[in-house]
Input
Amino acid sequence: MNMVLQYIWRMRFTALTISAIFLCTLPACMADEALVFDAYGAIVRGDVGEKKLALVFTGDEFGESTKPILDTLKRRNIHAAFFVTGNFVRQPALRPLLKRAIDEGHYVGPHSDSHPLYATWDNREKSLVTERFFKDDLQNNIVELRKIGALSKGRPVFFIPPYEHYNRDQVEWSRSLSVTLINFTPGSGSNRDYAREGDPHFASSQKIFDDILAFERKDPHGLNGFVLLLHLGSGRKDPFHSRLSALSDELTKRGYQFARVDKLLKRRE
Output
């Protein structure tokens, strides 16, 4: 991984740690009392009173873990969510796997078309993209997904932004498109499965596995309402998909049910 990417990842993990501290739980920030929003207005957790969690997977240029992930989910009858970019959808080897995901009952949603960085790492309030660019790029992603049968019209559209990094601008711009911006629940460190060997933030798949389960015991609510994010690939030699079976089995043993993210985060009427 080159120095630019290492810098991006260093700043990314710093920003995610900071945002985790400022989860918005005040009534004024909560359009639905059962949902948890972060300081920028994105939904980051479902009802902490229910022992349910959602698995979400994001993908851009890499997708080598997609098939084994789908195989694991199918064996365990788990419905998850796949948030992918236009870059991902347009790859001939990956497109059929997305169609399979849709056929097998998974949610397939947008992750931007070109995977741009929306806000600076050192000043998150500063947007790097215009509203027009943001909307065009996101709508292009949605169009590509609808071509393969995802995102039926009239159904809610959920969106995880590229790098899982954004500010209030992108949350509001998404809302104006009738799109709901969401993000993973911070704390478990599951998203580290993207960092490759040699990256300063690299963690082995075993370490990530252990940390997820340790966080489940430490958090007062366990993983209730949790949005657990993993990646569809990164080019690392120790991908997390080899631990997915064991993780899902252990969480089931601990009494959790897996819910599709659009159902876990469904707004109350």
